[in-house]
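Glyoxylase-like metal-dependent hydrolase (Beta-lactamase superfamily II)
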Amino acid sequence: MEIKTLVFNPFYENTYILFDETKEAVIVDPGCYEDYERKELIAQIEQNDLNVKLIVNTHCHIDHVLGNYYMKEHFGCPLWIPEGEAEIFRAVTVYAPQWGITQYTEAQPDKLMKEGEPIRFGNTVLNTICVPGHSPGHFVFHLPEEQTLIGGDVLFKESIGRTDLPGGDHDQLLQNIKSKVYTLPDDTTVYPGHGPHTTVGHEKLHNPFVKG
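Predicted structure tokens:
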């Protein structure tokens, strides 16, 4: 599996394009809001001659869903969100103007994902793991064969996701990192929702919020 990373919106959110040798692709957390950001994402798809099969959200805070509607319409593909994020997703329309985001359009999800329900594209199968704490229904996407984790806002390089937003729970997040992320192999690469990628082993040794 190949991974392209694009950084979008005022929150510096990581949008990921995942694809394999079949050229089938999944867009994870399209955060593109401005027109130039949308064009940048589409250009990456076209330059790599990809066929977008699906858009998925790790969770549904505003910075991770801004491009859902536009990309779903442009590529004519379904949108999947975690089942525990439906209420968080609906709330974005209410609070977006408070952040100066006045052109947001809510996309209708085609599926509410359940934990353990695989994400399939081309020859790739991602496992879905529910890791709440940053948000109530947050998912991470794991490709064990390549020791890769698309981690959303659960774990950052030497940091963790904030827990002061509605539905956040600090103790729950720490416990879930220990039991669901730190139990993965140390050389698992974690691609977070913000900032540079890291590894499970590095975080177990150096993360000041939760040591392994």
